[in-house]
Amino acid sequence: MLLSTEGHSCEFSCKNSDVIKAFCLFWLIFVNNDGKASSIVYESMLDKSKEKVSIVADENLLRELAGLLIDREVARKVPDKNDISNTIIWLKKDFPDDCDYCLRSWNERFKVDINNKELDSEKMETLRVVTTHNTLIKRILMWTQRVYINSKFKNYDPTSDRDEDLPMDLDHLIPQSKFGFNWGERNDRLKLDQIDSQQEKNLQNKFRYQRNVIGNSLGNYRWLASSDNRSRQDDPIAENDNDKNDDIWFNFGTDVDGKFAIKAFNRIIDKDQWTSEDVKEMQRAIDLRSVFIFEQVASFVRENLFDIK
């Protein structure tokens, strides 16, 4: 389009709408510098216009541009299916037995080690960034919850930037009051016996200062109608939410009986006082759901933009 305005011939003939959607998702989620990416795309198209009389903007061109942005390091690497599978296996492992009330720090999250071999650090960095960046979280959930949003709010315009036009809230599944409580209440909110100096250190460094990283990440969020959010308050998640929001729930074996992960979240929400195991289960449930939701976007991008199953 930009080239056409400057007198160059550029025909847009991308007939596969999924490729266009995948390129838009790639740009919205994986590009880390819009300005530089735009310049690179424009310069690339300008170079092509010097070589050819007419440029055809088709599926192949969009794929080429996406690869170029990754090569030029203005877009993050997209983890592949094996990366995701190995991450799930790793997340199901228990935390070290000697670490009470431990949550993984931002740098430790998705630092997957399979058979003493660490996965591609840049791809795992993508997972860390995307699942903790508030704007990216909102974008991902807009896509993965599009069925719910379209059915619930038929007149909603997602391009509007006016807060009053937003009929839904970004809702914490495990309420913030559960994990972000005033630290002076810790003896009431955590089941603590007599603790030694090392346990106290873990409690401060591995829980107190890490809990908001986990609690405010992708796996603990959903878009929920504002009226439903007000009704819910800090109550457990309604069991029939998987019927309304079946695009954001999953079964990764977090439940012994193999049912929806809603049960895994509600077991934690229902408790007024958490044990060390509850804290670990909080991270496990949130991280597994983070990976599940992320993979819905990543797999769509891989299959339609990079032709990788």
Please explain how this structure is put together.
By secondary structure, this protein is mainly alpha-helical. The protein has two domains: 2-75, no CATH class; 81-304, no CATH class. 53% of the residues lie in helices and 7% in strands. β3 (113-114) and β4 form a beta hairpin. α2 (17-30) crosses α16 (276-305). The model is unreliable at 1-10 and 251-259 (pLDDT under 50).
Rg (C-alpha, Å): 22 Å
* Helical fraction: 40-55%
Low-confidence stretches: 1-10, 251-259
Number of strands: 6
User: Which class best fits the helix and strand makeup?
Assistant: mainly alpha
* Secondary-structure element string: HEHHEHHEEHHHEHHHHEHHHH
What does the average pLDDT come to?
81
What number of structural domains do the residues give? Answer: 2
Q: How are the strands of the largest sheet arranged?
A: 1-2
* Strand portion: 5-15%
Count of helical stretches: 16
Oligomer: single chain
**Termini gap:** 31 Å
Name a few traits of the molecule.
16 helices; mainly alpha; single chain; 6 strands; 309 residues; two-stranded antiparallel ribbon; two-stranded parallel sheet; disordered N terminus
